[in-house]
Amino acid sequence: QAGVHENDGSDIELIDDDDEKNEAEEYELWKIRELKRIKRDKEERLERQKELELVERRRMMTDQEREEDDKRMDAGSAKRDEVKAFNFLQKYYHRGGFFQDKARTGEEPLYNRDYHEPTAEETFDKSTLPKSMQL
């Protein structure tokens, strides 16, 4: 009988899984998520369709027209900044391959960070080093 009383408080630790409490509120939240998903899917479909139309249009061009189109597209694209030289013993940080769509749209400023900047540990005064270690 002693083991029976040990598990009496186990129901208190259970996670609340009562889905019927706020059914109307949950339904509204689901509707919002579903509408956002439908909108995102439609935008992705339209973007893919534009890309296919561009490919098809470029296939129909002559070499001369394609070169002119390349020049026009290059002039409209943003120029990449000059690559900065690394400091002595500066660590290289890779941007990563995931979530780069957020960097492209500017949605998340973290992904637009310049990873070639030295960190606080890497910016130190080399004059304090011994003469043989200074470069």
Draw up the topology in text.
Elements: H1 2-6, H2 23-59, H3 63-76, H4 100-105
Brief sketch in words of this structure:
With 135 residues, this protein is mostly helical. 46% of the residues lie in helices and 0% in strands.
User: Overall pLDDT, averaged?
Assistant: 82
Quickly count the helices.
4
| Separation, N- and C-terminal Cα atoms | 79 Å
Total beta-strand segments: 0
Low-confidence stretches: none
What general form does the structure show? flat
Radius of gyration: 29 Å
Which structural category do the helix and sheet elements fall into? mainly alpha
What's the helix-strand series?
HHHH
Helix content range: 40-55%
Q: How can the largest sheet be summarized?
A: none
Q: State which percent range the strand residues make up.
A: under 5%
Describe this structure in words.
This protein is an all-alpha fold and 135 residues long. 46% of the residues lie in helices and 0% in strands.
